Amino acid sequence: MISVLFVCLGNICRSPMAEAILRHKVGEAGLDGKISVDSAGTGDWHLGKIPHEGTRRMLDQYKISYAGMKARQVASSDFETFDYIVCMDDSNATNLRKLPGGEQATVLKFMDLLPDHELREVPDPYYTGNFELVYELMDAGCQVLLDKICQEKL
Predict the structure, then answer these.
(1) Taking every pair of C-alpha atoms in the chain, what is the biggest distance, in angstroms?
(2) Residue 14: active-site member
(3) Taking every annotated instance into account, which residue ranges of this chain make up the domain Phosphotyrosine protein phosphatase I (predicted)?
């Protein structure tokens, strides 16, 4: 089983959106049971909460399930558990590196999946309100990541 962890700040907007989209794509590709997907936040403000209403609205619009998803915080054990750890911005990467085991972890920045895009970090829609842009980025980047996983691991 190949495992992917998406990481953002509070685990209610960007990373759960990416988790839901990649899970959906994995299912469409018939790869359930081969790829597992999770998400977490570097902060603890929203622990146990469901995804933000803006994230839910976008996922509902595209008929993508987020059932059972609740915010959690990154744990040091995640560095040993996950094959791919994908963070949304430099701040998240810095915070991951401060955790025990984080300094050696391989962390991929989400926007590195989309090298031709002008943005180098995924904007936080909690502050910008632009959930549509984040959905577009997540949809495109998750497809690239799925292709990458299939080439590298499957």
Answers:
(1) 39
(2) yes
(3) 2-148
Closest CA to 142 of 33, 56, 78, 64: 64
Cα 13–chain centre separation: 9
Please name each of the domains of the chain with its CATH number: 2-152 (3.40.50.2300)
User: Of these residues, 38, 78, 124, 139, which one is catalytic?
Assistant: 124
Which residue of the set 8, 13, 87, 142 is catalytic?
A: 8
Measured in Å, how far apart are the chain's first and last C-alpha atoms?
10
For the record, the structure tokens of 34 come out as: 């081969």
pLDDT tens, position by position, 141-151: 999 999 999 99
**Total Cβ atoms within 10 A of residue 81:** 12
Q: Which letter does DSSP use for residue 109 in this model? A: E
Query: Are 55 and 16 spatial neighbours (Cβ–Cβ below 8 Å)?
Result: yes
Residue in 14, 23, 56, 72 annotated catalytic: 14
